[in-house]
Design brief:
The chain is built from six helices and eleven strands. By secondary structure, the protein is of the alpha+beta class.
């Protein structure tokens, strides 16, 4: 028996999210069915992040156990002939038996895309949030530094979140502009349920002058969801990168405290390496 780690890209438009659902096809189900056929045994996969319906991923990290003889680096070639075209596996590697794609993650990067022009896009309608009213990008950028650092982000969690702690650390909060396209990039040690979409929705309301640029500062102080704006729609969101401490690929047992916390938090700086 060996443990395999895959890097998976998907367009979440046609799926009920990453995790198996009773009310629709999930990315996890499609991947498990393909793996089970390829390996000749029932396969269950564990993903690094539970993306919602309509949310996309550039590099979802997925581990599973198998006794089949397919070489780890050949899984992309095998699976991509069996998966629908909106799911693609890019890399496969063997990892230690106690590696965990979700609990050993020490950081993630999310990207949220906004199309800010009068008319929407036929080609990119499922990959961005169309906002037809002009946005004050300067005010939006002014608000972002408040998010950086370690804070209690209790106000930034949607109902239904199950995190043991709402303390998180963000080390990047950037808003790029290229003509009508706005790209929000957030990077941190972990994120709460709908945290990125709440930040994106609040940012747009700041850009519309419905909220002041200090809205994030106020919400961090109050801990109240009411001090923030709407939850942005899912189609603009992408899980872009998942990071792991180097020891996760050589000695996962040394990070057991990290795995048991389940929060992606670290007690000190990690030397991180990309999962691919």
């Amino acid at each position: 028996m060996k443990r395999i780690l895959l890097s998976v890209e998907y367009d979440g438009t046609n799926y009920a999210g990453w995790q198996r659902q009773q009310n629709g096809l999930a990315v996890q189900q499609a991947l498990e069915e393909a793996l089970s056929r390829a390996c000749g045994e029932r396969i269950t996969v564990t993903g690094s992040s539970r993306t919602d319906a309509g949310v996309h991923a550039l590099a979802q990290q997925v581990h599973f156990d198998t006794g089949c003889s397919i070489p780890p680096d050949k899984f992309p070639f095998v699976l991509n002939t069996m998966l629908p075209p909106d799911i693609r596996v890019h890399t496969g590697r063997e990892v230690p038996g106690d590696f965990h794609a979700r609990f050993l993650s020490c950081g993630k990067t999310y990207t949220y895309r906004i199309l800010n022009r009068r008319h929407g896009s036929a080609l990119y309608r499922n990959l961005c949030w169309h906002v037809p009213v002009p946005l004050d990008v300067s005010a939006m950028r002014e608000s972002l530094p408040a998010l950086l650092g370690t804070h209690d982000f209790a106000a930034f969690q949607a109902a239904g979140g199950t995190a043991k702690t709402t303390v998180r650390t963000l080390d990047r909060a950037e808003l790029r502009q290229e003509e009508a396209r706005l790209t929000l990039i957030l990077s941190g040690n972990a994120f709460l349920y709908n945290m990125v979409r709440i930040i994106a929705g609040t940012l747009v309301e700041i850009g519309l002058h419905r909220l002041r640029p200090d809205a994030f500062t106020q919400a961090l102080a109050s801990g109240s969801r009411l001090d923030l704006g709407m939850t942005a729609p899912p189609q603009g969101l992408e899980l872009t990168e998942v990071r792991y401490p180097a020891d996760a690929f050589t000695d996962p047992a040394s990070l057991r405290w990290h795995q048991e916390s389940g929060s992606g938090r670290s007690a000190g700086p990690f030397k991180t390496i990309p999962p691919d």
